[in-house]
Amino acid sequence: MFRRWNNSHQDQENDSSQREIKINELKAAIGPLTGRSAQYCTDACFRRYLEARSWNVDKSKKMLEESLKWRSTFKPEDIRWEDVAIEGETGKIYRANFHDRQGRSVLILRPAKQNTASLDNQMRHLVYLIENAILNLPEGQEQMAWLIDFTGWTLSTSVPIKSARETVNILQNHYPERLAVAFLYNPPRIFEAFWKIVKYFLDTKTFHKVKFVYPKNKDSVELMRQYFDEENLPTDFGGKAVLNYDYEEFSRLMAQDDAKSTGLYGSNDKLNHDTNGYAGAEVAPEPTCLAPPAS
């Protein structure tokens, strides 16, 4: 028995050692970084990109370089609540005031509450809240959970396919391994037509993180309870807590978080003089469902 434990322990150590080697290989492949790119590319960041590409260094390098290019133009760290506040008036996406059982931040999405037509602004709002969810993660936790409420959802109130595809693109390609699970709570039957299209945008890993939950399906409800304390979970999702979105209060909380974010990231001018130990310019990127989803 001791020999089996010892062999298992040794295997874990070897696996950990191999992963550290991969992280160092990716660091070397990416090369010198400065400014925001240097701040973004922590060891944990390298690990997430490697995990997303099954620890293939070349594929991870390509993915990370594309993200760095995206971040240099989209500038997610510089988005402030006042820039996207109009998108938040109805509470179509917001960070919940509770975590799941693993301490993950929780984003609540209510697609029927869509209130604007600008795809660019909608994506800035989404990215702002993803960044905010990450900002509010406890130490040692890197992922978030999504709760999607389909109350009032119809094909006429659904987001356009283009919006859904861009949401998936941003989440999968620029925030790899940030999503732990996404619960789609009680979607109407008509959602099947929408899902048949959207699911093809999902890679295999993301697809398996999507869980359909129906109040009358015992297995899917039990799965939800494995992730959330019933006392914290809103009644909209089968829990006991009352869900009230207060736009003014949420705006106040976001203003406080904006101040924290500014302190964390500093100004772009200052960061451009900070490096990760190299002297150089910014990197130049190279040109299961227990209640099964509809099919």
From TrEMBL:
**Stretch list, region Disordered:** 276-295
Q: Name one GO molecular function term.
A: phosphatidylinositol transfer activity
InterPro entries the record matches = CRAL-TRIO_dom, CRAL-TRIO_dom_sf, CRAL/TRIO_N_dom, CRAL/TRIO_N_dom_sf, PI_Transfer_CRAL-TRIO
* Superkingdom assignment: Eukaryota
SUPFAM superfamilies referenced in this protein's UniProt entry, alphabetically = CRAL/TRIO domain (SSF52087), CRAL/TRIO N-terminal domain (SSF46938)
Q: Which Gene3D superfamilies match?
A: CRAL-TRIO lipid binding domain (3.40.525.10)
What sequence ranges are listed for the domain CRAL-TRIO? 81-245
- Listed Pfam families: CRAL_TRIO (PF00650), CRAL_TRIO_N (PF03765)
Indicate what this protein is called per its UniProt record: CRAL/TRIO, N-terminal domain containing protein
| Organism in which the protein naturally occurs | Trema orientale
